[in-house]
Design goal:
Strand content: 25-35%
Radius of gyration: 23 Å
Number of strands: 10
Largest sheet: 6 strands, antiparallel
Order of helices and strands: EHHEHEEEEEEEEH
Bound molecules: fe (ii) ion
Shape: flat
Number of domains: 1
CATH superfamily: q2cbj1_9rhob like domain
Helix content: 10-25%
CATH topology: Jelly Rolls
Distance between the termini: 100 Å
CATH class: Mainly Beta
Length: 242
């Protein structure tokens, strides 16, 4: 008697990565990049004394040629502001959903606390750092020189390409667990990530400018309430007089 084979059953396997920070990656249309570059070019052409007022290099960790304050109120930035709002809220909402967190009043907007253009040239780099006093940060590539490609320009014999790349670093290595995420800068590529996520921009070598936009972002909730010390004094006065 021949043995009956059980009916073939397909087993569905779902490989998930539920731990660690999430990074949103988007390719933005070229007109947004062009608008930002136009705005930045205008800042670059300013007289030295005017430019000194918006140069944030002294307060930022980058070992780069220039870091210029980007005023998001400029019309060239509005579309990007809206995109960042949508992405940050989605990152927050999808996480809340996954964790089963129900918010009566989820965030309805974002507040960009600070934003700036990073202008890097031959040998410039940005040491490993995090962004403080905010929830999200981002990087959008606006210009990438030819020397930053899928091959190292100076250390061409190396097979591991890093020149000019960004590296996000988190946790420690283990089986099937990576502690870094290395990406080649491509014009128009936008990365939005939690502000505490360590990242580094490796130096590149050769002619041309690597230009990017970064911002520090917090979520805005409809029920947000602000106080200053003056509110306390008002209360005290009222109770004393009342
Ligand atoms: Fe950064």
């Amino acid at each position: 008697m021949s043995e009956q084979k059980p009916e073939e059953q397909k087993i569905e396997v779902d490989i998930q990565s539920p731990f660690g920070p999430r990074i949103a990656i988007a390719k933005l249309p070229m007109h947004i990049v062009d608008n930002l570059n136009k705005f930045c070019d205008g800042l670059v052409e300013q007289k030295q004394e005017e430019k000194a007022k918006i140069d944030k290099s002294a307060n930022l960790v980058g070992h780069v040629t220039e870091e210029l304050f980007c005023d998001m109120n400029h019309e060239g930035c509005h579309e990007l502001g809206g995109i960042l709002s949508g992405i940050c809220k989605s990152m927050h909402n999808t996480y809340s959903e996954m964790k089963g967190i129900h918010e009566e009043a989820p965030p309805e907007a974002i507040n960009i606390l600070d934003s700036w253009f990073v202008r890097s040239y031959d040998g410039d780099y940005n040491p490993c750092h995090i962004h403080t006093n905010c929830q999200y940060s981002c990087i959008l590539y606006l210009k990438v020189p030819d020397s930053i490609s899928d091959k190292n320009f100076r250390n061409a014999k190396e097979t591991y390409t890093t020149e000019g790349y960004i590296d996000f670093i988190y946790g420690s290595n283990a089986v099937n667990t990576s502690s870094n995420f290395t990406r080649q800068p491509i014009v128009g590529d936008l990365y939005v990530f939690p502000a505490h996520l360590m990242h580094v921009a490796y130096p590149f070598f050769g002619e041309g400018e690597r230009r990017s936009f970064s911002a520090n972002i917090i979520l805005e909730y409809p029920q947000q309430m602000s106080f200053t010390e003056a509110d306390t004094e008002k209360k005290v006065d009222e109770s004393v007089n009342g």
